[in-house]
Model the fold of this input.
Amino acid sequence: MTYMDKVNYWANHQNLDPELKKELASLSAKELEDAFYTDVRFQTAGMRGLMGVGTNRINIHTIRKATMGFINYLLKKNPQAKVAISYDNRHDSQKFAFDCAALLASHGIKAYIAETLRPTPELSFMTRYYHCDGGIMITASHNPKEYNGYKLYDENGCQLIPELADAVIKEIDCLDDVLAIKPGEYDEKLVEVVGEEVDEAYYEAVLGIRLRKDLPKDFTIAFSPEHGASNIPVRETLKRAGYHVEAVLEQCTPDPDFAHTASPNPEEAKAYIEVLALAKEKDADLLLVCDPDGDRMGVGVKDHNGEYVIFNGNQTGALLLEYILSSKRQLGTMPQNPCIFNTIVTSDIGEAVANYYGVDCEKTLTGFKYIGDKVHRYEQNHEKNYVFGYEESYGSLVSPFVRDKDATQACLMLAEAVAYYRQQGLNLNDVLHDIFDRLGAYFDFQSSIMLPGADGAKHLTEIMSGLRNKPLQEIGGIEVVSIEDYKVQKTYDAEGEKKLSGYDVADVLKYYLADGSFIAVRPSGTEPKCKIYFSIKDLTMDKATSKGEKLKAAMAEIVK
Done:
């Protein structure tokens, strides 16, 4: 079926949502092609895309199609299935969520749905708390306001790994008349709106992660939820733990247009403008920023000169690791066979910290579902014990009563780390530089190439093919000593070609350089762009930074 066949099908279908029908009539030929040339599909973080009419957009019909596939998948496993549902502040998120609940119920599946917006980690918790067979989260995470999305979870509260996602996709692909899918009649008892009970259970579990409860808390925390779902959970748990929090009130409203923030993404400097101003006004020692669905956290601290230092995700992960592992060693609570998890594009500084404390580090593909799946496997076979997991993209999990990134836990643990180091006259910037002095300096950063639309998708394919067809021998004058290709599952080095095992197939290339640095290239799983990850190692941060700028320029030339 061509994209115009799909356009005509939608235009003439009696069930097309009236607002979408109006939008369809207004689109240009180019806009129609982009909206219908492909189907929005599950990627590394579920299904995410621009909102609007079309098969390549997030709308009530593409959400229903995905949900119907999930329903058919669940019913084959358990005719009495139950599903937890939550949603963030995005346009139509609540509408989509309650429509999902009605569709589930009309097929005999019990739905537990949050009364108002709740963060992604609490959805994972809800799935486990109500002993559900799966979960649905309506969110576009940290994407711009034009996006929305859809995440699916298994019975362990973990996002679907590829094997399970493929089974759902097969069910989705069997659905022909997409616009015919809509909720039928159902027993109202099959839709249960939940709130305080699960909130309290979640808060209790979060407060249980504390390592040192009685530290002095004589400092101020500046906080922003970026208009999203972390507003109440983060402020409430910090308050109950005894911390003084000042919030950017304009950013505490669940505004889908993000009216009072330049960016809802903690990976971008623009996300910190308002919270930095508040931190300076209140003389805060710590500032925290969460993305709209409350799974990622950005961090900044006041240094000894009264200036604020913002950490990247790799640095925050290393700081959390340093505090947690050193505390467990000091308190005698380190488990047998401890293990931490991060990803193949995460800086090696985290592994260096873990190894310093005698803790194993296992790497997974990008996507926290892989870490959640590892947690479940070790929970079953008892070979290793989970201590911490994180990604470079500002997400971590302290305790696995949740099986996804959890910014509420991370905020509480960071606040405790600040309280602990303050007793020693240190701030987190001091601690980070102590890590660099001890283990080597790492300059970690990303660059991206935006490639929207059909032409962009084609260009992205050409970039990855070009890199594979002509393997890089050096980058910026530094020898490439090894290449890992996760798509063909092979490693190439001076000894030849070897099988790369332990990972699912993924379109990622990772280059190891002779100086201990690495560069990785992958298409984004949630946005139309090519991501390049740099982890540059040297004796000092100045040297690592200088080298990193040269390597960034070299990669820009290579992939242009």
In short: Residues 214 and 242 are 9 Å apart (CA to CA).
